[in-house]
Structure formats: C-alpha cells, structure tokens
Amino acid sequence: MNMIILDDHPLVRQGIRMVVAAGHNLNIIGEASSANDALQLLDTTKPELVLVDLNLGNDNGLDFIQEARRMGHLCKYMILTSSITRGELQLAQSLQVEGICLKEALPEDLLYAVEVVARGRKYYDPVFMDTIMEQGPANMETDLSDLTPKELEVLLTLGKGRSNKEIATELYITEFTVKKHVSQILAKLHLADRTQAALYAYSKGLVQFELQREA
Question: Which residues are annotated as modified residue 4-aspartylphosphate in the UniProt record (predicted)?
Fold first, then answer.
C-alpha cells in the first residue's frame, strides 16, 4: 500500500516513516507539512492511504480530509493525534475516517493500526472507543424523525445486514447514493459505523417490524 504523511513536524514524519518501514508492503511515497501541499501531493502520487496529523498549525486534519474527498480523492485516511475533542471525534465518525491512532502509541501499535486500515478495516484507538461507548445511552434517545424517509429505509436495510450493492438494488438507487445516505445516518445518530447502525436498528425494533411486514 502506497502512503503519504501529512504532519507539520519533520521529526514526527521521520519517526512515522521509520515505523511504517518495518511493515510488509507498506510504502511511504511522499510527505507534506501543510494541507495545501498534501492536496497537491494527492494529485501527483495517488496514494491509497494518507496519515494525517489532526492539528496542523492553522489547519485541521479533518478539514483537509473533507476537502480532499470533495476533490475526488477517495483513498483511506488515518488521523494521528495526541488529543481529540468529542466534536472532532463525532465529525471523524460521520466522515467515516478509517482510523484514529494516538501519536503516543508504541511503534508496534501504530504499525498494527496502519496494517489494519490497509486491509480494509477500521481502527480506532481503544482510548477513543471508550468515548464512543460513553455516547451510547444518548444515542438511544435520538429521535428517528431526524431521518428522512429514504434514510430510514436505508437504516432498515442496514439492520438486515445488507451490503451497499444490495441496498442499491433493493431501493432502486445508486451505490453512491447509498453511501451518502449511510454517511448522513451515522452523523445524525452519532454512530461510528454500519455495525452500530445495524445494532441501533435492532434495538429500536425496526428490523423485527420490517421482517414481520415482509412476512
């Protein structure tokens, strides 16, 4: 997997490069110290993963990710940070950022996190997962009326374990539209991923109701 590093501290970039070099089939193909430089680097290198410092001086790593995706760079993104606010964590979840790892993590833990994301899975440091789980009770009180009718339909299909392709076929919409609806559902319900959305639908009795209706 080809990667670039976005961090405004040269020593940090050097440290990350040394850690990643110990992994199998992981290649650092570029470095950037600012969001603007990183956006240009994305155009020229086409990486599969970007390791992003959350705090970039006057810039914010999440703003960079939003802009990069708006420009069509749909590679994976992993946030590296020493701290993150609840609001930033919720935004990262709504953006479906593939990974969040502490800068203070042991080298082997950082390498493990990168390899997990490289394999197509999400990695959120357990420290941040604790914060996500603390939001659980509040999540259960979320008013489903915040969802549009189509988003509610998508939530029901998530509860039944449907893939994006299956949802698109079932609801007669494109996979791109499905992804947009899933992103909005996660943001509105303050959920981390599809699995939490499915559990939420089940806990609300939505899946059971849908299955009875189909029967």
Answer: 53
The number of distinct structural domains making up the chain is 2
Q: What is the pLDDT of residues 124-166, one digit of tens each?
A: 887 776 565 555 444 444 567 788 888 888 998 988 888 899 9
Residue range(s) defining the domain that contains residue 81: 2-134
Single out the residue of 7, 25, 174 nearest to residue 16, CA to CA: 7
Residue appearing with tokens 């994305």: 42
10 Å CB burial of residue 71 (0-12, 13-18, 19+) is exposed
Name the domain boundary from 134, 160, 187. 134
Whether residue 84 contacts residue 95, with contact meaning beta carbons closer than 8 Å, is answered with no
pTM of the model: 0.62
8 Å CB contact between 64 and 6: yes
